[in-house]
């Protein structure tokens, strides 16, 4: 989908993302390297962004550093939504979803452009569609051609990228509140905890499936899509089946139900850890998936001295991540970039763990499912970090901490007080020691990474010395935090 966005818009989106990911400030020369752009181009982009979003953000250059100041409720995705809404290609493809054009001439007319220009635009659109989804836009008759599941996957990504979280683009076809009511009555019967983010994604998937079905497009369901009898039982309960049929104005049979819930009725998906274990006794693929994932968790916990309190939940989630990989809405290109950025930060924290998990998951995908998919692999890596309870704190605890010693020329109680203030504010990968010895010469000050004192030390000890007031100020705490982060990276670089 990125190929349908202009280079200028992509560059400006990247500029905002880089600035907001760099604690809102970055040296200009470093920014130029990251952006792979000249100083003139970056200055032009800053000028245009300031002009277009003057009430929401302000980018300035002070002493060679680029700063961004923005409203608390404004960010990267606000600009992204604006870019996608104004993009003519996305507008045309969305119109084609709701109200198929009869001819390319009509599409050109509605786009206020010539037919020849529209033909060139279609060629540009097809380069992106074919590369990302293996589908294409036909001109005679005007339609999207390809596997129906791939077409739906494209539209999942289009709508979830283009529309904000609380927006509903399908109001002309499906009442959002009534669909939510039906989904809730259905989901509450399942042994599954679903949060609001997944609920929203599921709602978009079902809406797109329904609209495509009503327009005569059906998925070619595989043998894996035998619907769970439990789902049919839920639909029959309290006349839910007939209510849903009336809501969407569509006669429901078994094939239609499977198509509407396409992706969620696959026999490889498990709604709970117990169901996954039971399914492993009946299905060879699920069995291979479960036991190989169990072995992966064992290898990771042993090698990195970790514990995992929610092991079965993590295994079930990772298994379902692969099964839902073809329809998962959160795999749109925006989320892909965010996941890459997340994993880069994770690599800074725990490079060995990330590399080991990446190697094991790559083997798992090839051995169990016979696939190579970098996007799916990154999603699995993201999920193991976010779903494994206590993983981050354990990885940090196992690293070399930054040692801080606090000295006070008043007394050790004052030093202890300063230590408490500092400890409250600094990252948890530092340890603080307060000196209470009678003779300072008994203390090996060389062994500490940072010395914090309310008096000048007056010795060159080859470590960081930070002079603070009797009560460390916010600037003192910021300086200490920056030094802690810097030294922590150095001590754990290998």
TrEMBL record:
Domain M protein trans-acting positive regulator (MGA) PRD: from-to ranges: 176-388
Residue intervals of the M protein trans-acting positive regulator (MGA) HTH domain: 7-64
Descriptive protein name: M protein trans-acting positive regulator (MGA) HTH domain-containing protein
Source domain of life: Bacteria
Keywords carried by this UniProt record: Transcription, Transcription regulation
Domain named Mga helix-turn-helix: residues: 73-159
Pfam families xref list: HTH_Mga (PF08280), Mga (PF05043), PRD_Mga (PF08270)
InterPro entries, A to Z: BglG_antiterminators (IPR050661), HTH_Mga_DNA-bd_dom (IPR013199), Mga_HTH (IPR007737), Mga_PRD_dom (IPR013236)
């Amino acid at each position: 989908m990125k190929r349908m966005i202009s280079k200028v818009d992509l560059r400006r989106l990247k500029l905002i993302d880089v600035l907001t990911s760099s604690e809102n400030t970055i040296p200009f020369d470093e920014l130029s390297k990251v952006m792979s752009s000249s100083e003139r181009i970056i200055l032009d982009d800053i000028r245009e962004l300031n002009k277009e979003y003057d009430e929401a953000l302000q980018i300035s250059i002070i002493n060679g550093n680029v700063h961004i100041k923005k409203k608390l409720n404004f960010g990267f995705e606000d600009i992204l939504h604006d870019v996608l809404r104004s993009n003519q290609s996305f507008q045309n493809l969305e119109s084609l979803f709701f109200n198929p054009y009869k001819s390319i001439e009509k599409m050109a007319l509605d786009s206020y452009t010539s037919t020849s220009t529209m033909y060139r635009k279609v060629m540009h659109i097809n380069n992106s569609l074919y590369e990302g989804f293996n589908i294409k836009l036909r001109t005679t008759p005007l339609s999207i051609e390809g596997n129906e599941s791939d077409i739906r996957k494209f539209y999942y990504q289009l709508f979830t990228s283009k529309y904000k979280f609380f927006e509903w683009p399908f109001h002309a076809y499906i009442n959002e509140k009534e669909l939510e009511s039906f989904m809730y009555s259905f989901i509450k019967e399942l042994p599954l905890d679903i949060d609001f983010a997944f609920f929203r994604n599921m709602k978009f998937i079902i809406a797109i499936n329904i609209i495509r079905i009503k327009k005569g497009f059906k998925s070619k369901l595989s043998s894996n899509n035998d619907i769970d009898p439990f789902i049919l039982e839920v639909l029959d309960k309290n006349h839910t089946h007939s209510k849903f049929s009336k809501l969407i104005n569509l006669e429901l049979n078994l094939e239609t139900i499977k198509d509407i819930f396409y992706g969620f009725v696959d026999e490889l998906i498990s709604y709970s850890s117990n169901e996954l274990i039971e399914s492993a006794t009946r299905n060879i693929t699920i069995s291979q998936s479960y036991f190989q994932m169990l072995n992966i968790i064992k290898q990771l916990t042993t090698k990195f001295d970790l514990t995992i309190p929610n092991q079965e939940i993590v295994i079930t989630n990772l298994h379902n991540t692969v099964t839902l990989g073809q329809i998962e809405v959160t795999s749109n290109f925006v989320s892909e970039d965010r996941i890459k950025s997340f994993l880069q930060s994770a690599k800074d924290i725990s490079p060995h763990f990330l590399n080991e998990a990446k190697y094991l998951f790559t083997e798992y995908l090839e051995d169990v499912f016979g696939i190579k998919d970098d996007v799916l692999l990154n999603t699995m890596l993201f999920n193991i970090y976010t779903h494994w309870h206590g993983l981050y704190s354990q990885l940090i605890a196992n690293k070399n901490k930054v040692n801080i010693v606090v000295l006070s020329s008043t007394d050790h109680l004052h030093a202890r007080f300063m230590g408490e203030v500092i400890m409250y504010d600094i990252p948890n990968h530092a340890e603080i020691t307060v000196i209470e010895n009678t003779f300072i010469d008994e203390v090996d000050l060389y062994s500490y990474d940072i010395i914090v004192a309310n008096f000048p030390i007056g010795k060159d000890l080859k470590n960081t010395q930070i002079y603070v007031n009797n009560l460390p100020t916010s600037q003192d705490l910021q300086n200490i935090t920056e030094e802690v982060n810097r030294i922590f990276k150095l001590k754990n670089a290998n």
